[in-house]
Here is the input.
Amino acid sequence: MESIHSKTPLLPVIILSGQAQIRDAVKATHMGSAAFLTKPIEKDKLSGQVRHTLNVSADGRKNSGFAEGIIYRSNIMAELVDLSMAVAATSVTVFISGETGTGKEIFAKAIHEGSERSEAPFIGVNCGAIPEQLLESELFGHEKGAFTGAATRHEGLFQAANGGTLFLDEIGDMPLSLQVKLLRVLQDMEVRPVGSTKTYPIDVRIISASHRDLDEMVNSGEFRADLY
Here is the structure.
C-alpha cells in the first residue's frame, strides 16, 4: 500500500487476504485501501466490490454537493477541490500544506464530510497552541493521578474521534517527543493514555496541516522523517 500510494496516491486498491485479523483491516483502511476482503469470497461479491470501487473512483468528481462551503473561481482551486473529492472516497492519511488563512481546515472538513466517516466526529486541535504536557493529555488521554492536577480519568481526542476524523492543525509545531508517540499510534492503530499500562484500539482518520515547510524541518531535524 505504501509503495503504491507513493507512486499513484489516487489509485483504488482492494486487499484480499485469507489470514487477516480485524486490526489488519482497520490499518489497511487507514492506509487508504478501498476495501478489505477475506477469503473465501464469492465471485459475485468480488465483482460487486470491484464495480463499486470503480464507480467511486470514476464518478466521485460528479458529486455536486461536495465542499459546498468552498467558494472559488481559479483553476488551481478547482483542481484542489477535485483532488480532495477523490481523496475523500478513501481513508488515506492526508497532509494539507499552505499559508495561514488559506482554508486548510475548511478543506479538512470537506474531506471528512465527503467520506464514509461523515456521520462520525470531526475533531480538530491546534498542536501549536497547547503546551507539550497538556497536548499529550489532550491527544492520548490520561488516567486519574497520572500527573499533578489529574483528578479524574480523561479520554483523549483519539478515542473521542474514534470512527471519524482527527484534524491535527499546525502539526509542524508538535514537539519531537510527541511526534514519536503519534508515529506509534499511526503504526499500531492503538493509543495508550498517560499513566496507563493499557492500550485501546482506535479507528481514526488523520488529517494534518501546517503553514511550515515540513521538508525543510525534516532536513533540519525539527520534524521526524519517519512520521513525515
Notes: The chain has two domains: 1-91, 93-228. Residues 57-63 have pLDDT under 50 and may be disordered. The chain is about 40% helix and 15% strand. The domain at 93-228 is CATH 3.40.50.300 (Rossmann fold).
